Each structure stands twice: as C-alpha cells, then as structure tokens.
Amino acid sequence: MIIKKIELTHIRSYKEKTTIELPVGRILFQGDIGSGKSTILSAIEFALFGLGDIDPNHLLRIGESKGSVFLEFESKGKTYHVFRSLLRKGNKISQEEGFLYENGVKNSYSVGELKSRILDIIGINEKTQTKTTSTIYRFAIYTPQEMMKNILTSNNETRVEILRRAFGIEEYSTAKKNAEKFFSWIRNVTRIKKSIVNELSMYRMDLQKIKDSNESLREEIDYFKDSVEQLNDRIKIILKNMLETRERKERMLQAESAILHLQSRLDKNLQLEEEINLELGRMNQELYYIFESEKIVADLAPKYQEYIQKRQDLLEVTEKALEYDKLLLEKVKIESDINSECEKLNSSIQRLDLDLNELTSELRRCNDEIKNLDKLKKEEIVLKDTITDSNSLQMDLDKISDIIANAKSEMISINKEISKQKSELDTVLQLKQNAVCPYCKQKLSQQHILELENKFLQRRDFLKNQIKGLESEIKENQDKKNEILDRIRQVESKKSDLQKIQIQIAKLQAVQNTIIQLGLKINEKESNKKSIEDQLQDKHLVDQMKKLAGIGKKLDILYSYKANYDILNSTVNDYQKINLERNYMEHYNIIKSKQRVMEEIRIKEKSLLEFKNEIMTLSEKLNESKSIFQDSERVNIKLKELESQKLSFENELMNKKEDLAVRRTDHDNNMKQMQGINKKIFDLEEKVDKIIFTDQIGTWLDQHFIPSIEQIESQVLISIKEEFSKLFQKWFYLLIEVGDIDVEIDEFFTPIVNQNGYRLEVDSLSGGEKTSIALAYRLALNEIIRRMIMLDDNLLILDEPTDGFSKEQLIQIKHVLEELSASQVIVVSHEKELEGFVETIFRVVKESEKSQVELVV
C-alpha cells in the first residue's frame, strides 16, 4: 500500500481543509512537539479503519460540529479513495457512513463494512472488530510511540499475549484455554455419576411395583366387562319392546297430527270461502263503476275531440308566434342599445367639458404663482455673492483660536516653572548649613543661599513679565475673534435667507412643470372630446337604425299568427283548467278493465265451488283420524313402564362402566408411568454411558491435547523468537556502534542487554540507548509480521523514532533508513537533523491553535 494524498478538515488542530500529497520514497514530517504531526498519522488510521479505540473527542476539533478525512492510496497497482467523517450531536460524537471509490465508482458502506473492505484491499486477513483498529496494521505498518513503550514495559504474560495477536497465533492460546474450560466441565460432570446410578436403582423398584398393580387391575377389568355385557343384553330386550310400543304411538301421533292438520285445512278453506264471497262482492261493485264510467265517457267525447283539435292547431302556429316574440325582444334590445350608446357618448362629452374647465382654472392659478420666480432668482444671486467669503472667515477664526490656545498653554507652562523653582528653593532653605546642595552638589552656605534666592527672584520677575505680555496678546486676539464671530453670524443669517429663497424657487419650478403637464392634459381632453363627437355620427348607429326598420316590417307580417296563437292558447288553457283530458282518460281506462273484471268474477265463482267440495272431503278424513287416536292413553302407560325399566338398567350399566373406566384409567396411568420410568431409566443409562465417554474425552484432553497445543505454540514462538531476535540485533547494531554491548530476546520477547558479560536493566540505559532498543524492537516486529502474513513492504510509518537520541546517534538513522526496503517510509519527528536523510520534507507549524503543513523539499 502507498499513501498518495490525504485531506483533513476540522481534525484536532487542523481547522481549515488541509491537503497533503505524498510521493514515494522517504518522507519526513518535521515540527515542534504538539504542532500536529501525529494527528496526520491518526487521520490516516481513522480513514482506513474508523475510530477503533481512538477517542472521537481527541480527533474532532473542539468547537466544530463536523470533521472529515479523505485518503487516496494505491494497492496492488489500483488507486482507491476513501472518505470518513465525524458528527457532533450534543455531547456525543459519532461516525457517519463512509464511502470508497473503486475503479471510479462510489460505493457507500457502514462503518464495519468499510473497515472489512479496506482490509481485503490491502491484503490483511484478520477478524473485523468495530471497537478496535487493525492489530496487524498497528504492528506491521504503524506502531504509535506510546503503544511500543507499553509493550516493552508490560509484564511478561501481557507482552506475550499482545504479540500472539500481532503474530496471528492467538488461536493456540484460545484453543488451550477452551480445552481447559471443557476439561473442568467434564470433571464436574463425572462427579454426578454416582447420584445418577442411585436414581436409576430407585426408578427400577418403582417400575416393578407398578407392574404388580397392573396385574390386579386386569382381573377387575375382566369382571366388569362381563357385567356390562349382561346388562347390555337386558337393555336390548327392553329397547325392542319400547320400539314396538313407540311405533304404535307414532301411528297415534300421526293420527293426532293429521287431526290438527285436517282441522287447520278445514278452517283455512272455510276462511277462504268467506274471502272469495267478499272478493266477488267487491268485483261486482267494480263492474258497477265501469258501467257508470261508460256513461261519463259518452258525455265528454265531443268536448274532448274539440280540445284535441284546438291543441293541434296551437302547435302549428306556435313557431310563428315564438318568432314574433323573438323579433319583438330584438327590436326592444336594439332600441335600448342605440339609446344607451347615445347617452353614454353625451355623458362622456359632458364629463370632458367639466375636466377641461377644471384644468383651465388650475392652469391660470399656476401662472399667477410663478410671476415672482424671476425676482426670487435675482435675490438668490445677490445673497450668494454676499456669503462667498464665509470660508475665509472660518479660517481666520481657527487661526486666532490656535494663537489664543498656544498663549494660554505657554502661560500655564510659565506658572508651572515658577512653582517648580519656588519648590526647589524651599527644599534648599529647609536644609541645614554645610549640607550638600541637591542641585549643584556644593556645600550650603549663607552666601550660596542668598545667590539662589536672588537668582529665583530675577527669574520669577522675568517670567511674570512674559505672562503680562501673553495676557495682553490674548486680550487683543480675543477682540479680533469676537469681531470675526459677529461677521460669521451675519453670514449664517444670510445663508438661512438664501435657503428659504431656494426652497421657494424649487417650489415655483415644480409649478412650472405642473403648467407643462396641465397643457398636455388639456390637449388630450380636447382630442378625446372631438373623437366622441365623431362617434355620434358613426356608421354603426345608422346600420342599427336600418336593422330596426326591417324588424318592424317582419313583426307586421307575423302579427296575425300571434293573434291566432293567443286565441287557441286561451281555449286550450280553459279545457286544461277543468281537467278535461284527465277526467276523460281516467274513465276511459276504467272502461278498458271491464273484460278483465268479468273474467276474474268467473274464475272466483269456479274456485268457490272447488273449495266447497274440498271442505266435504276434509270433514270425512277428520272423523277417521279421531277414531284411531282413542287408544293413546293405554299405550303411553306401557311406554313409561318400559322406560323406567330401561333407566334402572342403564344406571346400573353406567355404574359398572364407571368402575370399568376407573380401572382402565388406573391401568393406563400405570402404563404411562411405566413408559415415563422406562424413558427415564433409558435416559439415565444413556447419561451414564455418555459420562463414561466424556470422562475418556477429558482424559485425552488433559494427557494429550493440551500438552500438544502447548508444545506446538512453544515451537512456533521459539521459531518466531529466533527470527525476531536476529532482526532485533540487526537493527540495534545499525543504531549503536558500541562494541561491548550485546542484545537478544528471551522466551517472553523481553529485550536483554549484556555489556562485558553482565546483564543490564533497560531502565539503567541512557535515553538514546532506550530509544534505540525501542526502535530496533519496532522495526524487527514490523518486519517479522510482514513475513508471517506475506504483506507487501511498500509502506512503513515511524512515529518519533529518535526521541532521546544524541546528535551522533541521529547520524545512525541514515543507515537504518537506507536499509529499509519499503517503497514509502513516513517519519514523524521534531528533529531537524533528519532532514538530510529523506527525499521529501513537510514542515508542520502551529499558530493560534491552528496547524499548517508546508512542503519544504
């Protein structure tokens, strides 16, 4: 794998988006401690494998809600792009879904899926765990400085356990632990073997007791079976007699049912006979009404024929009458449109005349207003000429004000000097004679003091004269200042007058624009008035007049049809008011039912005759059924006696069956108990057999399997240790040139240092020697893991490999870097001396809590 480019955004001390393009060869990230160098390595690991065991609070920049890492790398000749990001929600920081570009195609993955895919791409075969980073990557490519210190300072057992995972041989240890747990379980199982044998003996005794009980139950069951069969035979005889008696009773019940049925039919037929007589009476009444309707229809026929004829004539003239009405409506509409159009145009002319009068009046008013415009403009020119020297007055005022301020400042300085000299004289006067003068360093005498007083008085008089001159100058300049202020106030007053005149001129100029607009509006209104007057003579109105005359002629032709329509319509309405047609048709329809009613009367009379014959037949059958039903009481008594006997035998039979069922239930329960006990006996015997087999497995695990695993693991570790020790010595001797120091690795992979035949503790070594041991250990571990898992050696990352090295030892790093076979070696260090040993240098600096990366070489 080769790292080609990395982009960090809001990752720890990297605030803005930071892009770093990495070439092949030896690369150095150089910067002070805490500048953000190791953050780049953490970002690479995060992009490849996610957070793992990294605390997200130590990765996402403080105060930012989102951060991300974009990594471009090459593996097996193909280029890949991977992106991961962090999101802060409240106090919690979590990874978001990442994506990977493969062959130019973007694929989205969950956190765990993306880690598995990256491991496949770079050729690392290990079990994926979300909460941890890649163990092989940590030991074969990039081992953080603190992690390597933890390995070296751990106790022997912890160190070996860590290296087992790194070498990928922890399965041996896991298999051994699992086998020991299984053997412990087998020993516990073997202890319960005795209790199972005792339980098996008890179940066999219970089984024999149940077998004896079942023999007794079988004899009782045979006795109850015989009793049940005898009772069943007696009940069968009684049932046969009861069947014969019931058949006889059934015939009686049939006769009784027939009596009820015949009586019901007889009553129903009598009722139907009465209903038919009533229906015949109703039909005869209906026939009478039909005869009456025939008379009414004969009276209404002439009027009905006249009504039909008039209605037909009305339909013939209706079309012409409707046409007349339509033309009449059209005539009214046209007349209304002509009148409306003329009124509308005349109204528009009147409205335009009013608007013209108002505009003309407004125009005269505006002309009156602008008469004073020229006079105001002349006044404006005069005032402007008057106030042109206002700026020069202001400059004179400022100049005189500065002179007065300077004079006052000078007076204050003179007064301060007088006070200072007076204070110095007082200080001297307070001193004793022959004391040292604090100013001239001479001994004080009376003569010296008098000289100082005279000198002070002369200087004070001179300064007071200067003050008087300054006061006179201030007074003179103050008078000039007041004069200039009066002139400025006069100018300001004239400025105010000028502003008022300019406002009036602006208003009058606006009135001038209004006059122009009024002239345009008056012209527009006059043009609109002429256009409307032309419309009154428009051809459209003339055409409408002609059309109106043509409609009048058509109305005269159609008037006769309209008059005939009104007469016919009146006649038809009169007939409709008296419901002539409805009365005629109602009675006519009644007459049409005459034939039907007469036929129904004939059918009803025939049915009445048939009912009378059936009533006679039913009366005869009813008398016959009553004679059969007379012996029913005696049959019922006999049937009750038989049922009593049957019930007695059935009760006895039920008791016997219950006793039989109880014995059978006990027998079945015993059989079930026997089956359950047999199953338990079988299971216990099977358990005993399994325990014997399990005990044999435990013996095999304890005596053969676990010792074999320990021996295999021991041989593998010995083989690894020998190779590891050679690589450790190789890298250490490249770093340390002292000939009397030997190093090796013991069985717990602990570095052993010997000097002149004496073993030295690692803690007793110098800082550089300790770092050399740690670096040699790290390089040996990287190399042996790569060999074991057959990982390509294109990339190696070294974090602070020279911490504690002297300048002489730093030179040895050049040999180490030259010896490394990796195509890309990334070194992170604060040592500037390493810059001569690499091809590419990145400088990492941190300012205002923000890291920046600069390509130097």
Tell me about this structure.
Strands 1, 2, 4, 5, 6, 7 and 8 form a seven-stranded antiparallel sheet that branches. The chain starts with a strand and ends with a strand. It is of the alpha+beta class and 857 residues long. The longest helix has 177 residues, at 193-369. The protein has helices at residues 37-49, 111-122, 135-140, 145-153, 156-167, 170-191, 193-369, 373-386, 390-429, 446-535, 539-577, 580-592, 594-628, 632-735, 767-789, 807-819, and strands spanning 2-9, 18-21, 25-31, 66-75, 78-89, 92-95, 98-102, 105-109, 741-745, 751-755, 758-760, 795-799, 824-829, 840-847, 850-855. It is flat. Strand 14 (840-847) and strand 15 (850-855) form a beta hairpin. Helix 7 (193-369) runs antiparallel to helix 13 (594-628).
What is the share of helical residues?
Answer: over 70%
Structural class: alpha+beta
- Overall average pLDDT: 79
- Overall geometry: flat
Compute the number of helices. 16
Report the end-to-end length measured between terminal Cα atoms: 23 Å
Gyration radius, in Å = 67 Å
Main beta sheet? 7 strands, antiparallel
Counting DSSP E segments of at least 2 residues, the number of strands comes to: 15
Low-confidence stretches: none
Strand content: 5-15%
